[in-house]
Amino acid sequence: MPIRLIVGLGNPGPEYEQTRHNAGFWLVDNLANSLPGARLQRETRFNALVAKTSIAGQEVWLLEPQTYMNRSGQSVGALARFYKIAPEEVLVVHDELDLMPGVARLKRGGSAGGHNGLKDITAALGTQDYWRLRLGIGHPRSLSLQQQVADFVLHRPRREDQELIEQAIDKSLLVMPQICEGKFEAATMKLHTA
Length: 194
What we know:
Layout: E1 5-8, H1 23-34, E2 41-43, E3 48-55, E4 58-65, H2 72-82, E5 90-96, E6 104-108, H3 116-125, E7 131-136, H4 149-153, H5 159-181, H6 184-193
Parallel strand pairs: 1-4, 1-5, 5-7
Antiparallel strand pairs: 2-3, 3-4, 6-7
GO molecular function, one term: tRNA binding
GO cellular component, one term: cytoplasm
Active site: 21
């Protein structure tokens, strides 16, 4: 089944723009910029920035909720219901503490792992059975930092980590056509071995 909705998670506002928690926004921004005519525009009925585009011949919606992270499900649920998009046709792109910077992983379903954005989306969709593209940001402990997790995700990455996160985004963008076509096995192989 192809992907019809790609959701980037983050927090709205300039004070959050460069923070680790906004890695999902960074990928969707890069994706929109790479596609002709895909301009993210505010859509009040979904409380989000939205663009309709075509990837690998598939009609795809791009979505950046403009709620805060822990209310992301409001936008995702509203757009999915309006356009009759099934949970298995949804890809949520988010920051992942359990992966080091530079690593990106694709998976379907699973727990929210403490990620409030995923918790809210799971509640809104009524299932955990949607796709996730996890962008590694590292964990403060694995990066030898003394910060609390809540503080860590709301700060900018170190320059070397930022470069690695950007490389993971670039690798992810290369497999986006396969993901949108529903060729998840091929996309996973390419992404996980790149």
